[in-house]
Every structure is written in structure tokens, then in C-alpha cells.
Design goal:
628 residues, alpha+beta, glutathione-dependent formaldehyde- activating enzyme (gfa), 6-stranded mixed sheet, elongated, disordered C terminus, metal ion binding
């Protein structure tokens, strides 16, 4: 028979009893508890409500909002005012009567072991922590679930938790699996390791998985190496089991002037995996040094079989162009297509155009911001003109303290020819800017790239036919376009015919393997893909080039090449079998697309900035390279 324990108020008008032992004994130093007790803290015995009975009187209640975010309800004698028990709405207190132990009839019950102390930061300085009692800053769900509100009955690694509202069986293995999955979500999502330590997260988990404690930042740190190794093994397996792949090298300088290199690997089915980031240190950024670096990475990725590498994509800088030439001299690499980043190439086209005398006096802008700067300035034209004729501006122009640049600024604002040139520049740069964004949004392959460039040329031709901007130096722009396109891609000569012959995307997969092996057989300085071959002669027609291919690859000639490289596409977000969903123009994006893109961007920025600023040892001790 379970024994009964009783208690009552000071005057004896109200009384209660409960059976069995409390599931928790605790002290609490929070503000409401101090005021209820009239001292430094309350002493509380937590009892399941079905084991609790009011045996005498009709206690009244009073509710107050607690700083923890719950409602605390006190039950007291209406005659003498003694608080007998409390109830709380937080999930971890569901179904429990929080008996005030000072009202127990048998004072010896107060000698029983205390399980925990809450709000310990508010404990009086002359009080000391109780030995072996859990110390909690608030009503931490993890602390309560582990050893306080819950009674442990299980054996052999299986834990049975009693919560007043039922039993919850959580094995040790299940608990570890939950912790691992939660830690993996934090790590892969780029979230802070302390995420689950917030009160709201603890509240959420306690409601949805009673009896389980979410991992702390220390636990997540311990899980990080295992999760890293799991992802590394999966990605490396995918790469090494692929028939062929493309490699993307992207580099930039950090605040110390060191070159930080990001390496991604593109597989035939679309996903681009982030592979490694490393700091080149003080090593000179010469083409020869880059060749050594790239050669070593290629050997590791392909296991010595260089024929599996289909293409290498790099930045557009001159050093990288030299790297392409040096690597192309190796017989083992004669089949490889060397390409330049499309977005970089379009930006260089903008730079070249703005160097023309017609545009050079417009505005000094930062790399990558020309079009937006011009467009923003044009939108401000009317406001700028209104400002230039204000009385205070005219007075300042006549004053002796007139700023040096003010007269020139006012002159330019009033100069109609300046605004006409600005409108012209915007009209010329607009198609380039649009396809630069489209290239990034589509993860453009080679055929997308060339088609985008040719559509830019087509839009310029339409502008010329409309004669909207007669002063545009069209011949100079055409020459710049041709020179930049020849540097940017090797497929300009066949693209026109290719566009007419494309049927559908389904044939792409059948053609891909044939195309790869075809290029291996015909690579080298005399191949059709070399810029010095007959295919690249200005007088050589695209149809003739395609006829050459028709004799050697029927599927390839019919379908052509859809893509070599999807530029660094959703790098870390593609570690699982997920469909590549974002293939829309920026203007067509819906709200859900923007939210997905924002998450991907934040993840990439966290990784990129962390790698640039902290080098090799930023996240995980003992990992000498940044890899996934």
C-alpha cells in the first residue's frame, strides 16, 4: 500500500494529502517564490495531480505572470492566507502540484534529498549551493527532464520517464540519435551552437518530445567532427564514383592580402559540392604556383585518372588565363575544357565599355556596381535639379567658403548632355546586367553562357535599328564585345547553329557520356575546340563546324552540349539527393523562392566569411583543411 503524506495551513481550515513520493524536490529563488515564502526561497515538492487530494476546506487561488513566460497560480487558505501549493502552465510542470513543503504535517520530510535549485543567480550571497543538487538559472527544461520532474525507472539503458500525463520510453540510443540529428541541423544550417539553449527552444522540445534534452553547445561541438566526417565521406564517395566531373576554382584576397581559394566539384547530374577552402599564405600568385596547386587537387579528386576531369573553371584574371595555357600543355589534360566564370566575364564587358571616351566622364563606380550606380543616379535626376536651384545652394556658390567640388557638381546636374550620356550608358549596360544576374540564377552551363552573350548582341542591334541613341559608338562596342567573347568561351562559332538544332533536355543525359569521350579522343592543340583551329577562323561558318561533329558523334551533334559547369550552385545545400529547383529569372521569383534563396545565401556567406577571416582552424580542431 502506498503511504499517504498530509499537510495543512496554519489555522487548519485547509488540508491536503498525496500518495507515494514526490517526483522532484527543489528550492526556487525567483521573485514570486521569495514573495510567497516571505524569505529567500520556496521549498517545493512536485507531486502528480492524480496522487494529490484536497481533504479539507476550499482553498482560493491567485494567478500571476511569471518572468519565465508562464502563468503561476497560488492556492491558499481563505482564512489564514497560507499558500499550500502552486501550479504552473509551462510544459515541464504540466500535471503537477507544486506543494509548499513547509505545510507538511511531518517535518522530517524536509530532511529528504533536494534534487535541484532554480534561479540560482538570485540566491542570496550568504547561502551556499546544495551538494549534488542540479543548479539551474531558470526552469531549464533539460535540467528538469533529466533528473527532476521525471522519475527514472528503466534498466539496461532504457529510460522510462513519468510526467503526470503518462510514460515516455527513450532508449539511450534513441536519445543519442535525436541529439545527433539536432546537432546536424544546427551545423548544416549555419546556426549558432547555442541555439537550443534559449528558453523558447527548450519550451518547444519539452512539449514535442518530453523526456529528451536538446544538445547544448558543448554537445554540438563534440558531435561536429563526426558529422563532418559523415558528410566528407558521402561527398567524396559521390565524386570518386562519378564517371567525370568539373572543377571550379574561385579565389579572392582576405584582409591580410593572402589569396583564399575555394574549390567546388560539379557532377554530371547537376549538384556542385563545396570541396575545400585554404589560404595560400605568402606564396606568390604566379601561374606556375597555381598550376602546382591545381595539379595536386586534381590528382586527389580523380585518384590519378585525369581523364575523368571534364573541365576546369576559374576566374577571368590574366594569371588564370596563363594557368589554362600551362595546364593545356600536359598531354594528360589535352581533353580538358578550360573556361572562365561567366558572371566575371560579363562584368569585364561592362568595364571595357565604360573605358570608351564616350562614357569615361560619367561617374567613378566600384567594380560590380556600375549599372546600379547609374540607374540610382538617373532616378535622382529631378531631385538633383531641384536641389541645384535652391536658394541656399546658390548662396553657398557665391560664398567664399564654397566647397571646391560644388560648382562642378551643379554644372554637371544642369548639363543635359550628361544625363543623355547616362541614359545611353544605362541602355547599353542593361542587357549585360540582366544576363549577368540570369547567369548566376540559372547556374549557367556553356550553352546558356554563349546564348546569353548573343542575346546581349541582339538587343544592341535592336537599339541600333530603333535609332533611339544615335550617338552610341556602336562599332567600338561591337569590337569590345567580340574581343571579350573570344576570350570568354570556345563555343561562339557553333552556338548559332546549335540553338536551331536543340530538341529537348531528355537527350542531354544520353549525349553527355558520348561528348565526354569524344573530347578525350579529339583534344589537344589540333582539336576542333582549340581557338587556333579552322572552326575558329572568322570565315568558318557554324554549320560547317557542326557538320564536322556530326560525323563523329551523332547524338552529340543532334543534341549538343547543354552544360559543363553550373557555377558554384547551392554549394553546401546540395549534399543530399535534392532536385535543383531554382532555375528562374530574378524577375519571376515568388516569395517562397526568395526565402529559399535567402537561406542559401546566408549559409554561403557564413561559410565564405568564416573561411576568409579565420583560415584553416576556424570550426573544428584538428581539421587542417576546410572540406565537406
Amino acid at each position: 500500500m502506498p503511504s499517504d503524506t498530509s499537510g495543512s495551513c496554519l489555522c487548519g481550515a485547509s488540508a491536503y494529502s498525496y500518495t507515494d513520493e514526490p517526483v522532484m524536490r527543489a528550492l526556487c529563488y525567483c521573485t514570486p517564490c521569495r514573495k510567497v515564502s516571505g524569505g529567500t526561497n520556496t521549498v517545493t515538492f512536485a507531486v502528480p495531480e492524480e496522487k494529490f487530494t484536497v481533504t479539507k476546506g476550499q482553498p482560493k487561488s491567485y494567478a500571476v505572470n511569471h518572468e519565465y513566460g508562464m502563468t503561476l497560480i497560488m492556492f491558499f487558505c481563505p482564512d489564514c492566507g497560507t499558500t499550500l501549493w502552486m501550479e504552473a502552465t509551462a510544459p515541464q510542470f504540466k500535471g503537477l502540484k507544486l506543494i509548499q513543503a513547509g505545510t507538511l504535517t511531518n517535518a522530517k520530510k524536509l530532511n529528504d534529498k533536494v534534487d535541484a535549485e532554480f534561479y540560482v543567480l538570485e540566491r542570496a550571497s550568504w547561502l551556499v549551493p546544495i551538494e549534488n543538487a542540479a543548479q539551474s538559472k531558470e526552469f531549464e527544461a533539460g535540467v528538469i527532464n533529466d533528473s527532476l520532474l521525471l522519475r527514472q525507472y528503466g534498466q539496461g539503458g532504457s529510460i522510462c520517464w513519468w510526467l503526470g500525463c503518462g510514460y515516455y520510453h527513450i532508449s539511450q540510443d534513441e536519445s543519442h540519435n535525436y541529439a545527433y540529428d539536432a546537432a546536424a541541423a544546427v551545423i548544416a544550417g549555419g546556426r549558432p551552437f547555442s541555439l537550443f539553449e534559449s528558453r523558447r527552444w527548450r519550451y518547444f522540445f519539452t512539449r514535442n518530445k518530453p523526456g529528451w534534452k536538446p544538445p547544448s553547445r558543448a554537445a554540438i561541438t563534440r558531435i561536429l567532427p563526426d558529422f563532418y566526417q559523415e558528410l566528407y565521406d558521402e561527398v567524396f564517395k559521390r565524386i570518386t564514383s562519378s564517371e567525370w566531373f568539373n572543377i571550379i576554382f574561385d579565389a579572392s584576397d582576405n584582409v591580410s592580402g593572402h589569396r583564399i581559394v575555394n574549390i567546388s566539384v560539379q557532377l554530371p547530374d547537376g549538384p556542385a559540392f563545396y570541396w575545400k577552402t585554404f589560404d595560400t599564405g605568402d606564396e606568390q600568385h604566379t601561374a606556375e604556383n597555381w598550376v602546382k596547386l591545381i595539379w595536386g587537387e586534381m590528382q586527389q579528386l580523380c585518384g590519378g585518372d585525369l581523364s575523368r576531369i571534364n573541365s576546369i573553371c576559374t576566374d577571368t584574371e590574366n594569371t588564370m588565363r596563363s594557368v589554362h595555357g600551362l595546364l593545356g600543355r600536359f598531354p594528360e589534360l589535352s581533353h580538358i575544357n578550360f573556361s572562365l566564370g561567366d558572371s566575371h566575364g560579363l562584368q569585364l564587358l561592362i568595364k571595357d565599355i565604360l573605358l570608351l571616351p564616350f562614357f569615361e566622364d560619367l561617374i567613378i563606380t566600384r567594380w560590380g556596381s556600375q549599372y546600379n550606380s547609374f540607374f540610382s543616379l538617373l532616378r535622382s535626376r529631378d531631385l538633383a535639379r531641384d536641389w541645384s536651384i535652391r536658394k541656399d545652394v546658390r548662396d553657398e556658390l557665391r560664398s567664399q567658403d564654397c566647397p571646391v567640388l560644388l560648382p562642378e557638381a551643379v554644372r554637371i546636374i544642369k548639363d543635359n548632355s550628361f544625363w543623355l550620356k547616362l541614359e545611353t550608358a544605362i541602355a547599353v549596360l542593361k542587357p549585360v546586367n540582366e544576363f549577368q544576374h540570369a547567369s548566376e540564377a540559372y547556374g549557367a552551363g556553356i550553352t546558356h553562357v554563349v546564348n546569353g552573350w548573343l542575346q546581349i548582341k541582339s538587343k544592341w542591334s535592336e537599339m541600333g535599328e530603333a535609332d533611339q541613341f544615335p550617338d552610341i559608338p556602336s562599332d567600338d562596342i561591337d569590337a569590345i564585345f567580340k574581343a571579350r567573347l573570344d576570350k570568354q568561351t570556345v563555343f561562339a562559332r557553333v552556338q548559332e547553329y546549335l540553338q536551331k538544332q536543340l530538341k529537348n533536355d531528355d537527350e542531354y543525359h544520353r549525349a553527355l557520356s558520348e561528348f565526354t569521350h569524344f573530347r578525350m579522343r579529339t583534344g589537344g592543340p589540333d582539336s576542333l575546340f582549340n581557338k587556333h583551329s579552322a572552326v575558329y577562323d572568322d570565315g568558318f561558318k557554324p554549320a560547317m563546324a557542326w557538320q564536322c561533329l556530326l560525323n563523329q558523334g551523332s547524338i552529340l551533334a543532334r543534341v549538343a552540349v547543354k552544360a559543363f559547369i553550373f557555377m558554384n550552385d547551392r554549394v553546401l545545400d546540395r549534399l543530399k539527393d535534392q532536385e535543383y529547383a531554382h532555375k528562374k529569372r530574378w524577375a519571376d521569383l515568388e516569395e517562397k523562392d526568395w526565402l529559399e534563396l535567402e537561406d542559401s545565401y546566408l549559409i554561403s556567406r557564413v561559410i565564405c566569411e568564416r573561411a576568409r577571416q579565420e583560415g584553416l582552424d576556424g570550426w573544428c580542431d584538428g581539421l587542417h583543411q576546410w572540406r565537406f
